[in-house]
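Field log, afternoon session.

UNIT: design team B
ACTIVITY: writing a sequence onto a fixed backbone
BACKBONE:
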């Protein structure tokens, strides 16, 4: 199945009393995309976001779009979606490129999603009641523990992003690291033969298809059994 569009996600960071914290939003539990999951602010890129970025409206398929154009429009969409969902106002220039996520071929709706880091701009979080039911500022390690304990539902890109953010003590360190690196692309592939586990692999894993495969024994995967998830990377 081809990519059908582009989306944007904004990982909002603040310095808490005990270190770095991220803003997570709870989706309604019985309806909509990612029902019941705790996610970062974000949503689909609209044609108007391309126009706001000074770009022509895109074609229907995202498969062959110019990545730089998608990225510029996604930055605009990230600011818009954050304001719509949380009432927090960001400037497009405050978003730092972090990663790009491409769903597995089996996904029912495949959107290429750009992830950005942004420092909390201050102000009160006011949720869009039609889209969200709760929010929390949490240290990445605490969010991961809640997920493993079955008390917070995360999706794979959120889980991996939180895992990677554990290494940073404060906002400045996380933003500096992201600003100094190219955004990493996670083009997901589901691996067969691991039942009852579900396993998603990315570039560098020994079982990743074609030219993205690593050497024997190399790991870059998420192993999921119930809520007990492990991100493995050699």
């Amino acid at each position: 199945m081809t990519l059908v569009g582009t989306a944007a996600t904004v990982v909002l960071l603040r310095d808490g009393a005990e270190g770095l914290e991220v803003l997570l939003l709870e989706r309604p539990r019985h309806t909509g995309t990612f029902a019941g999951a705790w996610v970062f602010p974000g949503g689909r890129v609209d044609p108007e976001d391309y126009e706001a970025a000074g770009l022509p409206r895109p074609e229907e398929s995202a498969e062959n779009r110019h990545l730089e154009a998608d990225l510029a429009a996604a930055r605009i969409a990230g600011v818009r979606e954050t304001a719509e969902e949380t009432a927090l106002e960001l400037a497009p220039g405050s978003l730092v490129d972090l990663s790009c996520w491409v769903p597995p071929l089996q996904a029912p709706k495949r959107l290429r999603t750009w992830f950005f880091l942004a420092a909390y701009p201050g102000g009160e979080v006011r949720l869009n009641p039609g889209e969200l039911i709760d929010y929390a500022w949490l240290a990445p390690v605490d969010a991961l523990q809640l997920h493993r304990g079955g008390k917070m539902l995360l999706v794979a890109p959120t889980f991996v992003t939180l895992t990677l953010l554990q290494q940073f003590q404060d906002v400045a360190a996380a933003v500096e690291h992201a600003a100094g690196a190219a955004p990493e692309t996670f083009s997901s592939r589901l691996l067969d033969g691991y039942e009852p586990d579900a396993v998603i692999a990315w570039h560098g894993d020994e079982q990743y298809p074609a030219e993205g495969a690593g050497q024997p024994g190399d790991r870059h995967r998420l192993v999921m059994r119930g809520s007990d998830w492990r991100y493995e990377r050699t």
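LOG NOTE: The mean pLDDT is 92.
NEXT ACTIVITY: expression trials, pending approval
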